[in-house]
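Hey, weird one. I pasted the Palmitoyl hydrolase sequence into the form twice and got a warning about non-standard characters only the second time. First submission, copied straight from the form history:
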Amino acid sequence: MTVIEDNVRPTLLRPPEHDENKSLIENVLDVTELKVLGLDIFTNTQPQWHPPGARGIYGGAVIAQCLAAAQKTVPETFLVHSCHCYFLLAGSSETPILYHVERVRDGRSYSTRTVQARQKGACIFTTTISFVREPTPDKKRREVSHAASLPEGVSPPSDDWDGEPEWARTGPFQSHRIEVVGAKDPEIKPQDRKSRQWMRSRHKISASGGPQAHLAALAYMSDSYFIGTVSRLHGLWRFPFSPEEVPSLDEKTQEQVKTLCEFEGMGSDVEAWKGRAQVGMLVSLDHSIYFHEPRAVKADEWMFTDMESPWAGDGRGVVTQKIFGKDGALLATCFQENTFAVYTPCAHTVRQGKEECKDSQSITGAMKKALKVGECQPDNFIKLVIDWCPDCKTGFQEVIRVLDVVPATYRGLWDPRLLERYWAIKSQRRCLGPIDAEVIGYDAFPTRDCIEYRPLNIDVPTSEENTWELHALETAVLLLEPVSVLIEGQSYVAAGELSVQIHLCKIAVRATAKKAYNFGHVE
């Protein structure tokens, strides 16, 4: 057993070569028991995948690896029939995960396990999994049965289908998107629309893996595009840049955006998305899977998923998913609740025929311009004027992309998503007070998991001119003095007092009050 001693170690043990006798998804989901640490403790064998733009690692991997660990503690005659999961913290791809399995109950027909996924001692994910013993052929019960049917008019792709975008061809499973049903009909309400896809393991799952490997693979794939169901049904823009910014991107990126839009059933006409509401933050809260036919699951054959949302409101949404086998059998039903923030582009961004306001200016662009003209010298400052539009009800995305703030004592150990975490946790906990952020824990692992947030009991103004969100951001940044600001990979420190009062509008509305940032250079 070789332990990795690097500062950044995505696995506790040195990853072995991929087993050529197993599929890629089996290798990805492999967990190793750590008997030296105690009974029923496992760890990921391979590094975790962190999807681009996500707060943490892919949730389906943690779900499936928890299941894989729990499966190792029950007899092979017991197969999973349900698991109920909660996402507690964003997982880091730079840190090993330890899966602690507790044997809650072992009965004649059912066994129950709880699994905690931990990083650096903190529980990032927890699940309760129930297994059922397969009945012997001579002891099958009389039963009442029914099941939902595969929707009419859908047929699986061919076995040799190869229509994925180039960037999607290295993953452990294939996904064939289908246009969102009802998306183009304004008469069809979001709760009546459906998001659909076909999916399967990229390679054949080994016979040695047994039904357990197929079930873990299904659990892994069940989180694929599940979180984005509400935004797709409502037709929300989900990229980290606005539709108005797409024409300014390089040609290759523009083509990738259009391809991804088509791949997700959104259509390739980016112009049609201008002025629409945009997703500011999207986080999974929980995830449940009911496996109806465990023995019938063949994850390396095409499976059809039918996703919909019966309800969304108060910054949360509930989504459901039915997973059918190629033969039409209902294999599993999934549920998930997520929390999200949505903002509508300022009305000033759209003028006559959706033309962009001539006075508009990207905050990021302003910073880049200031850097290019050479104003960033050790003894000089960059002055950035951010105009505050009181009529704008947008979110906080633009500032998040520019201001990545951490205490100056931890310069070089910056967390590039502190402000995003600040707002995400604020939304989840419904804190109405400003938040002070402290970096705690392990210097060697400056990941987002080393940050805690605690509310300060400060009275919060509620007037339209100074909302609690605005006041909270202002206070939080001021409390972090001195601060380090990361812009395009360069680090800067705030000089003097910060005057922060932004409603995060990208548009320059000249009649409104202006606030300025002054940044001094840090060598």
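That's the output from the first submission. The warning seems to come from a hidden character in my clipboard, not from the data itself. The first helix runs from residue 24 to 28.
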